[in-house]
């Protein structure tokens, strides 16, 4: 089901067949982003992954396509609080399609859908301090910083203080009681903020019948 569209992307609700398409995604080459690589799974594992993501009231998932109808990204709304009309945003892209402006294009259209169609009031996220590309995307889409703090990192096996190739990123990490933590920037956007800067979220007619 098509829910939103930008100039170069369109967004659909996650279906089981989409998980199969995501198995064709590439892998991140930078160790800092290994945990963002979509895992290879057998059919049973894909069935389980889809059910876990789809059949819960506190989560909604979507996929992003480019103009060539290639599935290039995945969006998750987590910790949805329906009474407060808020949730936490997460997005992952096929590494083969980053640095093409697709993240900003799709996120701007999704924000419109989120506040206009879903009638939500607030969207929050967190981004690793070393992920400059994602930070620029979120800032361009109207998000503001709420706080900066160290949180548990997804990849607890990252050899951050042992691999010379990662020395450049050591400043973003530290251990606390045996737990690897990363410096994260927490950001947010509200419905009021969206309405005040609505001109940056262009509404475009669908360029696909998919």
TrEMBL record:
Keyword Transferase: yes
GO molecular function: acyltransferase activity, transferring groups other than amino-acyl groups
Protein's name in the database: Protein N-acetyltransferase, RimJ/RimL family
Domain N-acetyltransferase: 9-165
UniProt-listed InterPro entries: Acyl_CoA_acyltransferase, GNAT_dom
PANTHER family per UniProt: GNAT-FAMILY ACETYLTRANSFERASE (PTHR43415:SF3), SPERMIDINE N(1)-ACETYLTRANSFERASE (PTHR43415)
Domain of life the protein comes from: Bacteria
Annotated keywords: Transferase
PROSITE patterns the record matches: GNAT
Keyword Transferase listed: yes
